[in-house]
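Morning F.,

Quick status update on the modeling queue. The single chain you submitted on Monday has been processed. Sequence for confirmation:
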Amino acid sequence: MDDNHDPIRPEELDGLFTRFAALGPGALAVSGGSDSTALMVLFADWLRQRGRSTGACTVLTVDHGLRASSADEARAVAASAVELGYRHATLAWEGPKPRSGIQAAARTARYRLMGSYMRAHGLGLLLAAHTRDDQAETLLMRLARGSGLDGLAAMAPLSPLGERGPGDSAATGGRALWIGRPFLDVPKACLRATLEERGVRWMEDPSNIAPEFERARLRAAGAHLEALGLTPDMLALSAARLARARRAIEGMVDGLCDPAAGAVHVDPWGVIVCDRAPLQEAGEEVALRVLERAVIAAGGSGERVPLAKLEAVLAGIRAARAAGPGRWTLARALIAAEPSIVRVEREPGREPLPEIAVSPGATVLWDGRFRVTVAAGFPGGPVQVRPLGEAGLRELRRRAPGAEDAPARAAAAVPSLWHEGRLIAVPPLRYWAPPLASGDVGAIFVGIASSARALNPADAGDGQRRR
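Structure tokens below.
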């Protein structure tokens, strides 16, 4: 996209949208502001160019209930969406609203509601209208928070929308949900010029200029920032270059975590063991990322770990070589530094392990750590999934002495599968009661690579994390 502020032309649409085509069917996040209205209009144009119907896509509008006019605004978006041939759904943020941090809370609610709708309707991709201006503001806000490389790389064109909760069914067939941002290289002025050229109106959110909100204060300071050379174009360019550096470092982390490298071992019962020598020798940024992947996977929280806490644990691990063994807890994970290894596992007793029912044909994420699947042809209704526990482990070892010989604490925290009051499987310990087999019911630890990407959707927002 050029740096001018001319309207977007038809020949530019392929460059904006084609890269997301393989992830459909999808939804569009539309609030009625200029950016999201332009997304709705331009995506409809691109679909027509491709000979595709807008009727396969759904426009999602969240009514936060924060203004008296919000319901009317949602209805106006619905009318515009239907006129363009889209399906439309209004999602209401119900219940009490916080007195502070309202924008962050509204953002969390927005992505939660849209993600739930997408899972329920088998949609894999959400397109959002974040612009180059939004990218620049995100970088500035994260600078103010002392963010690390991940935060300063700001928003990515494509990133995970968020992981399922402990009992959410896999309406998307186990596929991840994604958020795509086709306008990250597009100035807001281009989108407004596009709408103005067509005579399309949009709504203005008063919070965009309310001084109590951080983004509004940054916009008010825009002229002063630009006088210092901190233009949206230059800030977005810095974010893009930082993202390039992050990808390079992530490649190094992938290499260290690759089973072929022999530095990180992932047990099927959910324990991650890192050799201390490679972790000690790796650059600090690489070691931090390996440690974070292990904590996210073993703890199952599904969220990024605060950078300052990771740094403190890594410093302790490196110091423990001289001081002796060390133990830390972080994000539901227990980290133990031993003479030659660092062991990361689920922290016992931090939170109760869940008990859920899984219907035939469904896949769920249990405790944020194990994907539990029940085959569509499984007879007899739902399977109960609960932690094996110490008593269950004793019973399992009585029944199947050859079952996987996992450490007792880790084994007690794996999912066990029950049907009509009978233990039918403990897949992480390689046990299935005859005549069942792994194709009937399963539970697989999501592992270190998957958990590194199972992040909360707030990476699309205002930089609340210190990464």
